[in-house]
Amino acid sequence: MATTGQFNGTKIGVTVDGNLIGHVTQHTIDYTANTSSASSKDSEGHNEYIYSFRDGTMSFDALVVYDDDTAGDKIGFYDLFNQGHLGRTVFTLVMGTTESGDSVITQEALLNSLSLNASAEETVTYSGSFQFTGKPTVSQNA
Fold first, then answer.
1. β-strand 19-21 against 74-75: which pairing, if any?
2. Amino acid 12: pLDDT
């Protein structure tokens, strides 16, 4: 049944090539639309714009859990490092809930940032970001 009303952000996940990014603490999806000037002498001194290129990114923070790199249903820091940074893989991201009837966004993306933080006496974390490439699609979970 589709999600209704307000809900907790924990319901929204991001999968990378079908595997959930493990132990994510937060993620942000940003889409932007550039504009191009369409002003002319006929614009009577006012700027006019048309849409130009559209772009997007997805950034996230997660806990480093080595089990995620060997789990069949999750992807972790070293998976992303090996496949994205070293292998230059173009990933397929799916962003949304797993609830039947909910909308999800599917997007091809390149891993363009990956950072590990290991402070003394603190939980080891990492963060990363993906640069979207191509047109996203929106569909509903079956």
1. parallel
2. 87
93-124 pLDDT per residue, tens: 999 988 999 999 999 999 999 999 999 999 99
DSSP string, 121-137: TS--EEEEEEEE-S--E
**Cβ contacts of residue 21 below 8 Å, gap of 6+?**
13, 14, 15, 27, 60, 62, 74, 75, 76, 80
Token reading at 4: 């209704």
For 93-121, the DSSP string reads: EEEE--STT-EEEEEEEEEEEEEEE--TT
Q: Is 80 exposed, middle or buried (0-12, 13-18, 19+ CB in 10 A)?
A: buried
CA nearest to 124, candidates 137, 112, 115: 115
How many CB atoms lie under 10 A from the CB of residue 72?
Answer: 5
Q: What is the DSSP string of 6-34?
A: S--GGG-EEEETTEEETTEEEEEEEEEEE
DSSP state of 45: T
5, two tokens: 């009303």
| Gap between the Cα atoms of 27 and 61, Å rounded | 6
d(CA 11, CA 104): 12
